[in-house]
Amino acid sequence: MEIGIIGAGVIGLTSALALAEAGYSVTIVARELPGDNSQNWASPWAGAGILPHPDSEGHELQAESFKYYWALAHRDPTSGVQVVDVIEYYDDRTDDSTIWYKRLVPKYRRLPTTDLPAGAKIGFTYQSMTVNPAAFLPWIKRLLDSKGVRFVRAEVRSITEAQRMLGTKVIVNASGVGALDLAGDKEVVAVRGQTMLVPSESHEMIMFQGSHYTYQIPRMYSGGVIIGGVSQEGNYDRTVTPELRTDILRRVNLITKDRFQSVDVDRNVIQDLVGFRPGRKGGYRLEREGDVIHAYGFNTLGYTYSYGVALKVLELVQQRSSFKSNL
Known about the structure:
Elements: E1 2-6, H1 10-21, E2 25-30, E3 49-50, H2 59-75, E4 81-90, E5 109-110, E6 122-131, H3 133-146, E7 150-153, H4 159-166, E8 170-173, H5 179-182, E9 188-199, E10 204-209, E11 214-219, E12 224-228, E13 232-233, H6 242-255, E14 271-280, E15 285-289, E16 292-296, H7 302-325
Parallel strand pairs: 1-2, 1-8, 2-7, 4-10, 8-16
Antiparallel strand pairs: 3-6, 4-6, 5-6, 9-12, 9-13, 9-14, 10-11, 11-12, 15-16
Helix pairs in contact: 1-3, 1-7, 2-7
Family: Belongs to the DAMOX/DASOX family.
Pfam families: DAO
Keywords: FAD, Flavoprotein, Oxidoreductase
């Protein structure tokens, strides 16, 4: 059976992997492909930590992704996936009753209040993974090539056009922000992020959430860490905001005990990263609509959801096939 996928971001690529491994013939059509550094797609610009989120739905999807990347980090480090120690802080809750993944992740432990940075009400540590998109995206493309997945570089204007171009009836719509037009989904919105890659030997991932969104994420093979960040809904400015660079550095120093105090944002930044996450008001869309499986709107959690979404896409394709055969 032939399956077409619109979008070569992490959702489209992992969906292609799950489908190809299940025996489907898969073709991906996308304007950008792995190796491209265009700001028109989000996956190369991600942090990208595998960080389950306490307040986001789809716990089983996040759990499946966690298990996939955990195995991959141990099986093949050339994928750009590595195991790291994680520290999470929150100032919008006082206990860990919402931290559903404490039963999933290794070495989960609450931190004493004396170890918390200013403003934090709770903190905990565990092990998870980070992904270097510059290594992972080409790695998974090579894997898909070896499994016979075809790639077509093209910008499609509609799902019907993709079906006609690829000669496939079944389409997986993993178009990210493109779903605003392709699916006519007015809930889709771009969420601007700005981060910096700075020199560091640290292998810790540190995240502060609540009144501000601040983090340090190790980037394998780069000699540095990603520090951020911001989530600016509906902001399409592609240029680096100098004031944000200073503010990010200030906030990261607050949560890392001044680890980056010696960093000069005008001289020590290896790379500035500005990208646009595929957000969706009301949450992601993951469902079948006739011959189309929609999988988009994962915002900052694309990598965290990715392989779990891929397995759900496979399930929806199989359900559609079963439904058709019973007619």
